[in-house]
Amino acid sequence: MIHPILLYDGVCGLCNRFVEFILRRDRNAVFRFASLQSALAARILARHGANPSDLDTVYVVVHPDGNNEYLLLRSEAVLFVLKQLGGLGRLGAFLLQLPPKFVRDWAYNAVARYRYRVFGRSDICTLPRDQDRGRFLEL
Questions:
Q1: Which one of 3, 15, 102, 128 has the minimum C-beta count within 10 Å?
Q2: Rounded mean pLDDT of 55-69?
Q3: In the chain, how many domains are there?
Q4: In which domain, by residue range, is 27 found?
């Protein structure tokens, strides 16, 4: 199985909480993680014409390094993660996908605009627990 990679702002308090949320619920260890500030993220985003200095979104890289690799961003990335987690995550994804994409992305962008003020920021990326370290790329 090729594991999807979540690219997230490593210094954002909300983003780090989202990664912790995934780690607690991803019982099959489906996801891998890399900060948007990493060289790996820069290479992946460059392949897709995305700006690696745009830290206002989360990306999911589906089928990384494959011929059919593609990026999901903003609300589509969050919905993908929730669906993969299953259980209540799948229910949450169902409810969140009811509004049209432009409404979901507007709400996502509103949260992203104020995330540092509300959730804080850190000068360094949060380090994972020992049992999760192998799921983080380019530590």
A1: 102
A2: 90
A3: 1
A4: 5-128
